[in-house]
Automatic annotation (TrEMBL):
Domain Thiolase C-terminal: 272-392
Source species, domain of life: Bacteria
Boundaries of every Thiolase N-terminal domain copy: 5-262
InterPro entries: Thiolase (IPR002155), Thiolase-like (IPR016039), Thiolase_C (IPR020617), Thiolase_CS (IPR020613), Thiolase_N (IPR020616)
Organism encoding this protein: Noviherbaspirillum suwonense
Keyword set includes Heme: no
Coiled coil residues, start to end: none
Name the record gives this protein: Acetyl-CoA C-acetyltransferase
Amino acid sequence: MSQAYIVAAVRTAGGKRGGRLSGWHPVDLAAKVLDALVDRTGIDPAAVEDVIMGCVGQAGEQSTNVGRNAVLASKLPESVPGTSVDRQCGSSQQALHFAAQAVMSGTMDVVIAAGVESMSRVPMNMPSALPRRNDLGFYMSPGLRENYPDAPEFSQFIGAEMIAQKYNLSRDMLDQYAFDSHQRAIAASRAGAFNDEILVLEARTADGDPTGEMHAVDEGIRFEATLEGIRNVKLLQEGGRISAANASQICDGATGVMVVSEKALKEHGLVPLARIHQMTLLGHDPVVMLEAPLPATAKALKKAGMSIDDIDLFEVNEAFASVPLAWLQATGADPARLNVNGGAIALGHPLGASGTKLMTTLVHALGKRGKRYGLQTMCEGGGMANVTIVERL
């Protein structure tokens, strides 16, 4: 089977809700990432054979195939098609899997996997908030209710609490993890660890007017964060353990990676950053929902013939602090290798863009640290998880 290589990976710095990226139409934001991938590789834009774009909130400005619209707003020619993928939080990680599979099958040589989410302009859960009567217009169909009678709906917040209880994770443990995520992100930002992966853009007001400031630093990092301050944030439910401070931040952003074949490497003179080593997907309990990365990681390692100690760096999405902490407990991974530059609690979680966001950070971190193997996984709505193992070249 042919190999698939990542030759460029880029992301915008995360923008807070109503922040420096809120004035960007998501189509234009995604188009800037597509342009940056072409610029960084120097490839002929017409050589791109497809754009696969993850997006969860496919409504409003992100509707009507946001992937194709981003192509049309970019420097890519009209001949480049585009499609949009929704695997919830793993949408752009799935876009990466689809891109790699296209290349590995030999049907394509140059594919862009990307993601975009403007949570300021298309609020979370907007597509499911349409007016409804009984079951009409609601994703919980009669058949789904019959199969899961004790779940009035699938809730990530309830799932996060269930995981905290199942793995005996106290609120103090969750808050400490959240504080550590900010500290790692602060250290990485101040050391310039993100400089090579961030596409610097001009900030815009909510009305779309340029502010004259450049957006180059993840806006969600709380440089003044204190453990006491995190502990004082109100819990999301009485008697629970999850708060807004130990959960991922609402975020605007766009990200992308270019995936190519060995033939394209030679034809276009491209230098690979990493090779796709293994891809795994797993469905799990949709009620607990967020636990899927644990068995999915075990499955991926088994299929790759590797152990957890063979992996040098891990990116596990910090949807809630309970997820990476439970993952550490289940896998026995070295905590010092996990989310070394901070995670979504500090940097933000732009939903459908987070998959290629984490991969962008992972391949750059492997390069800067001179490490070989990286593993990325994230929990997804509906009780699923993607796992991607890459080898730095």
